[in-house]
Amino acid sequence: MKTQNLVVVHELYPALVEALSDAFNLTHFTRLVDDQDRAAFEEAMAQADAYLGSNVAFTEALLDKAPRLRVVASVSVGVDSYPIEAMRERGIVLTNTPDVLTESTADTGFLLLMMAARRAGEMLRKVRGHEWTASLSREDFGVDVHGKTLGIVGLGRIGQAVARRGHDGFGMSVNYTNRSAKPEVEDALEARRVDLETLFRESDFICVTVPLSAETEGLIGREHFALTRPHAVFVNISRGKVVREDELVACLQDGTLHCAGLDVYEREPLSTASPLMTLDNAVCLPHIGSSTFQTRNAMCDLAVDNVKRVLAGEGAITAV
Ligand SMILES: NC(=O)C1=CN([C@@H]2O[C@H](COP(=O)(O)OP(=O)(O)OC[C@H]3O[C@@H](n4cnc5c(N)ncnc54)[C@H](OP(=O)(O)O)[C@@H]3O)[C@@H](O)[C@H]2O)C=CC1
Ligand SMILES: O=CC(=O)O
């Protein structure tokens, strides 16, 4: 007999839904769309031993309504949306999905970097808009990536994977800022640790891969964009709130910053009223960092293994 209640708010691959239905009393939402879904979700959480998912606003009030809850398995590496201290006080184990998403997310970072450098979004719009009627002019040229300088803000797992792509694949020099020094990466990638201002001043491409925290919220703004080189490309694949988005928009509009490639925003989904929607020098993706079939399946598998281990009284594989 199934005795444990699992609430999932995530899209899962079909075989996993079947396996979870066999093992648990499963309440499964693909996503919470409206108030009715949210109410049904809270009702299910009142009996839940475990939760697995992402993109749900977790509050202390929700925890108060979930007295049986023992494990929250986030299908993400970032855990900025959870009340971590309140969970700890209640003895709820929080787990995440590091490592399995590192390479796909770094690919997305490099995709944005390349798209912004070569203005791929704009060019695609030209072709589709039937504006490719003659060979392109200098006004449509992009900038080279190979041999340039790449600056990484937050040289953790994903930051290092982006840096490796730049160094090994494109012969780029690497600058980085990070809380702690990374001598082994400095050796392997000839990377140079600098302060944030120097990184913005002395890099052609800047990629943000630092987690959102009290220290990093609003870390980057106009004073940094004002230091950038004439054709600098700014990429953010971490969290929108690390950047002061109104200042980013203003700097893209007034030419202080040449162009940006963004996967994340202050508010998601991005509002249709956002100026980023129409700026030619902003390449905007809808938070697809880890969204490949292989990686999302691996993230779900890891989250499930974490749930099973915690409920069995064993340590989680990737506790936060
Ligand atoms: N766009 C997307 O879809 C995705 C986005 N992400 C985002 O990427 C983030 C990074 O993931 P991941 O690389 O696995 O995380 P890691 O923990 O491996 O790396 C984070 C790095 O940031 C550094 N850091 C943390 N705080 C500060 C600070 N205040 N100042 C300077 N450096 C700091 C850490 O330094 P130290 O080594 O000293 O601790 C560490 O090197 C996630 O938190 C998430 O927000 C992740 C996956 C997908
Ligand atoms: O944004 C995605 C994550 O895994 O964090």
Automatic annotation (TrEMBL):
One Pfam assignment: 2-Hacid_dh_C
Domain of life: Bacteria
InterPro entries the UniProt entry points to: D-isomer_2-hydroxyacid_DH (IPR050223), D-isomer_2_OHA_DH_cat_dom (IPR006139), D-isomer_DH_CS1 (IPR029752), D-isomer_DH_NAD-bd (IPR006140), NAD(P)-bd_dom_sf (IPR036291)
Ranges where the D-isomer specific 2-hydroxyacid dehydrogenase catalytic domain occurs: 9-320
Gene3D superfamilies attached to this UniProt entry: NAD(P)-binding Rossmann-like Domain (3.40.50.720)
NAD recorded as keyword: yes
DNA damage recorded as keyword: no
Occurrences of domain D-isomer specific 2-hydroxyacid dehydrogenase NAD-binding (ranges): 111-289
Keywords from the named record: NAD, Oxidoreductase
Listed PROSITE patterns: D_2_HYDROXYACID_DH_1
Family: Belongs to the D-isomer specific 2-hydroxyacid dehydrogenase family.
The protein's name: Bifunctional glyoxylate/hydroxypyruvate reductase B
